[in-house]
Design a protein that fits this description.
CATH class: Mainly Beta
Strand content: 35-45%
Low-confidence stretches: none
Helix content: 25-40%
Shape: elongated
Strand order of the largest sheet: 1-8-3-5-6
Order of helices and strands: EEHEEHHHEEEE
CATH topology: Jelly Rolls
Oligomer: single chain
Mean pLDDT: 96
CATH superfamily: YjbQ-like
Structural class: alpha+beta
Distance between the termini: 5 Å
């Protein structure tokens, strides 16, 4: 069984940037020649998250609007009192969604649904350089 690591380097525009990384993840699996196994997709950083969505304009608008309702930007966050950086809501939103997901690989391909893409959500208030780690396990 192989265990391989690949990285995807990104530059975000700041919140609410949503970046589709499905093609890069698929390419990494192809380069590793893994036919069956798992890929874990993990984003380093406490103000970004990884999930799957249908990457279409309506949902790209709906998702940030939902996050604004769940963890509004304009309420007090104790994190902001500590660091005075104005991104307490970013940390809360990132923790709700999470930094990783695991996808089965079958016949050399991720088992994503037809309308399901892997996305990085930039939740910080400013542009950031992001590092996505792909941990591939399989044969």
């Amino acid at each position: 069984m192989l265990i391989l690591t690949k990285r995807i380097q990104l530059r975000s525009k700041g919140e609410p940037d949503i970046i589709d990384i499905t093609d890069q993840a698929s390419q990494a699996i192809k380069e590793c020649n893994i036919e069956k196994g798992l890929v874990t997709v993990f984003i380093s950083g406490s103000t970004a998250a990884v999930t799957t969505i249908e990457y279409e304009p309506g949902l790209r608008d709906d998702f940030p609007e939902m996050l604004s309702r769940v963890a509004p930007e304009n309420i007090p966050y104790k994190h902001d009192n500590t660091w005075h950086d104005g991104n307490g809501h970013s940390h809360v939103r990132a923790s709700l969604i999470g930094p990783s997901l695991t996808i089965p690989i079958v016949d050399g391909k991720m088992t994503l649904g037809t309308w399901q893409q892997i996305v990085v959500l930039e939740l910080d208030t400013r542009p950031r350089n992001r590092n996505v780690i792909l941990q591939l396990i399989g044969e």
